Amino acid sequence: MLVPPTTSVPHIRSGRLRAVGFTGPKRWPLLKDVPTVAESGIPGFDVSGSWHAWFAPAGTPPAIVKRLYAATRHALGVPKVQEFLRASGYDPDGRSPSETSAFMAAEAQRYAQVVRAAGVKPQ
Q1: What's the CA gap between 113 and 38, in Å, rounded?
Q2: Phi-psi region for residue 94, left (φ > 0), alpha (ψ -120 to 50) or beta?
Q3: Of 16, 43, 45, 65, which cross-links 37 as Cys (Cβ 3.0–4.6 Å)?
Q4: Which pLDDT score, from 0 to 100, does residue 69 have?
Q5: How many domains are there within the chain?
Q6: H or E element, residue 100
Q7: Pair (68, 105) in one structural domain
Q8: 92 and 39 within one domain
Q9: Residue range 10-26: mean pLDDT, rounded
Q10: pTM surpassing 0.85?
Q11: Residue 46: alpha-carbon gap to chain centroid
């Protein structure tokens, strides 16, 4: 079963759950002893799980977007914020708006291929 770090880490640390692999592209800092699925024999496996992003309405002036992004980057640079997010199972990276757009487009394309390969039809 694929379980998000936010719910599994307490159980892994208590010994009630054994992690056999991390689905991201690199080992997760809070579970350094758990190999990635790719390291365990499935090269290229990368299902990083959920991600979160902040969005502004279409047409928001670029100056406002830039200001919001700067505030977000500042907040993500605060050690207590980083500590809280990482302890909660997140790996904050503070991508720029253009990096986030590119990431979302790549994810949509990747999962569209998965849906096509699986033969999933709209219902």
Answers
A1: 20
A2: left
A3: 45
A4: 96
A5: 2
A6: helix 97-118
A7: yes
A8: no
A9: 89
A10: no
A11: 10
